[in-house]
Amino acid sequence: MDYKKTQDIGFDSTQQYVHPALMQPQDDVINLLDVWRTLAKRKTLISAVSLIVTLVGIAYATLRPDVYAYSTAIQIGSLFVDGNEKPVEDAKSLVIKLKTLYENTVLKDFYQENPQEKKIGDIDISVPKDSHMIIISSKNPETSAPVYDQLIGKISTTAVNDLNVRIKIFRNQLTEQIADAKKNLELLTIEETELNNRIQSFDKLFKSAPIENGGTTALVLTGLAGQRQQIADEKARLESRLTNKLLDLGLTQDTNVLFPVTRSVEPVGIGKIPVILISLIAGLILGVFTALLWDQIDKTNAQIDTH
Q1: For the whole model, what pTM was predicted?
Q2: Is the separation of the CB atoms in 72 and 98 below 8 Å?
């Protein structure tokens, strides 16, 4: 009898035992239900906070001025040496110089001429990959367009003028070399003409008295023929050099502004609709957080009152 009772007791106690891990999902469900009840109870508060934040976002998106990109591009000039192209200055090096120019000269002059102006924003100077081009740009409201048009224009004009002075010097050097080559060719042509006349004279002399003047005339003719060959070789070298210099001169390109400072067609940055959507989402999140915090404060106050 006692044995049976012991078995019954053991069976009953085993049947009543539940592992703690099995209780966890139920706790989670209860917690989520509590949160949902809290949010439902505080829906007016959530709606109010969401509405306020959304209205602030709408006001900001509506009142905020549209921002446009203002930009221009500079094509760096090229020098040609024996048919090989070389930029008048490395693009990355030019970017550093232009940034220094903007900070130390352009801005300083602008503030001196316009002391009433507020702080000017940044101007970006960059190089597109694998190019000999400089992009100068800035993002600002349309009301600031005249200021940035002036600043960007001054930077680009200064860069173009500076580089083109160096290209002009290079062209002048090429022009002098071409003129020297042409002059030397003219002198060689005159010398060649005179030499041909002498050869013809000795040739006539040799034909008129081949026996008497044969040996001497032959030696002279051989020497003159060698001189004529030297002149021909020198003329060929000069003509080749002249052709190369003329080609280099024709291919050398100035530094140019590809287009004036231009405003982007569409505003840049975050548009009005994304700002409103972000404010709506932020309002909902802030509303939920406020509701949970408010409920927790109420519970804490209730416990304090109870004690």
Answers
A1: 0.65
A2: no
**Distance between CA atoms of residues 141 and 64, nearest Å:** 9
pLDDT digits (tens, 9 = 90+) for 194-225: 888 887 776 676 666 554 555 666 676 677 77
**Which H/E stretch holds residue 140?**
strand 133-141
Domain contains 129: yes
pLDDT at 138 over 60: yes
Structural domain span for residue 82: 67-266
Record the tokens describing residue 243, joined without a space: 């052709």
- Structure tokens, 176: 């002098």
Instruction: Return the number of other C-beta atoms located less than 10 Å from residue 279's C-beta.
Output: 21
In a domain, 273, yes or no: yes
C-alpha distances (whole Å) from 234 to each of 62, 72, 133, 181, 283 are 78, 49, 41, 11, 87
The distance of Cα 264 from the centroid of its chain, to the nearest Å, equals: 16
- Residues contacting residue 251 through CB under 8 Å, at least 6 positions apart: 78, 80, 83, 85
Residues 269-293 have pLDDT tens digits of: 777 788 788 888 888 888 888 878 8
Element housing 88 (H / E): none
- Locate 138 and state its tokens: 């800035």
Q: Is 87 a domain residue?
A: yes
What residue has token string 């505003």? 267
233 and 143, same domain (yes or no): yes
Same domain, 45 and 147: no
Please tell me the total count of domains within the chain. 2
Separation CA 152–CA 157 (nearest Å) = 9
Same-domain check for residues 274 and 198: no
- Indicate the burial class of 26 (C-beta count within 10 angstroms; 0-12, 13-18, 19 or more): exposed
